[in-house]
Design brief:
By secondary structure, this protein is α+β, with helices and mostly antiparallel strands. The chain has a single domain (25-192), classed as Chalcone isomerase (3-Layer(bba) Sandwich), CATH 3.50.70. 38% of the residues lie in helices and 29% in strands. It is built from seven helices and nine strands; from the N terminus they run H-E-E-E-E-E-H-E-H-H-H-E-E-E-H-H. Strands 3-4-5-6-7-8-9 form a seven-stranded antiparallel beta sheet. A two-stranded antiparallel sheet has the order 1-2. Strand 7 (141-147) and strand 8 (151-156) form a beta hairpin. Helix 3 runs antiparallel to helix 5 and helix 3 (96-110) packs across helix 6 (168-179). The longest helix is centred in the N-terminal third of the chain and has 19 residues, at 3-21. The radius of gyration is 20 Å and the shape is globular. Keywords: Isomerase, Signal.
């Protein structure tokens, strides 16, 4: 092979290798960088959408929703087959009790009685996580994954905070806090579904 014809091939290979070595691109929300991809249970997920949870005038956390494929409606998100993830990065300190109460309130507003009656034990265990965890601090990262065959798996700053909660309906009840008919934040819901901030 002539050197002149080998150089473009070598350059092409080098560029491909460099591209693979680059870290995943990130989306920035309120100074928080969220990766555009995540790996859960060996599957590659894509950032479906991200935004800020605001309560009154206070910015509480940045949230990102990861799915195997982009979805635009709550029904599509809840019907996803396979792993899922949502990530919360705290923008302020919040007591574990307040955080747990906000989660429970969101579940109660968006899940009917019949469904909740099937999830009582998992809701109780979930509530215990935040009462035993203490405060969440600014910069803390709470990741909640749905892992098929295992359940809902939660980590805070990379450390497991509970045993897996096995029911998919429970994970969907969590997602409905933000994607249900009475979402915790009406401006965050469309952002998680991939709409651009206005």
């Amino acid at each position: 092979m002539k050197l002149s014809s080998a150089i473009p091939r070598l350059m092409g290979g080098l560029l491909c290798a460099m591209a693979l070595a680059l870290p995943a691109a990130a989306v920035e929300v309120e100074g928080v960088k969220l990766d555009e991809t995540a790996k859960v249970a060996g599957k590659d997920l894509k950032l479906n959408g991200a935004g800020v949870r605001t309560r009154a005038i206070f910015k509480v956390y940045v949230m990102g929703l990861y799915l195997p494929e982009k979805k635009k409606t709550p029904a599509e998100v809840l019907a996803v087959d396979g792993p899922r993830r949502f990530t919360l990065v705290m923008l302020r300190d919040v007591s574990g009790e307040d955080f747990g109460e906000a989660f429970m309130s969101g579940i109660n507003k968006n899940t009917d009685k019949a469904e909740k009656s099937k999830l009582v034990s998992q809701m109780a265990k979930f509530g215990e996580i935040f009462t035993t965890q203490g405060s969440l601090k600014k910069g803390d990262t709470l990741i909640t994954d749905w892992v098929p065959g295992t359940g809902t798996v939660m980590t805070l700053n990379g450390k497991s905070v509970s045993e897996p909660l096995p029911d998919l309906a429970f994970y969907n009840a969590l997602l409905k806090i933000w994607l249900g008919d009475k979402p915790a934040d009406t401006t965050l819901k469309p952002l998680l579904l991939g709409e651009k901030a206005s």
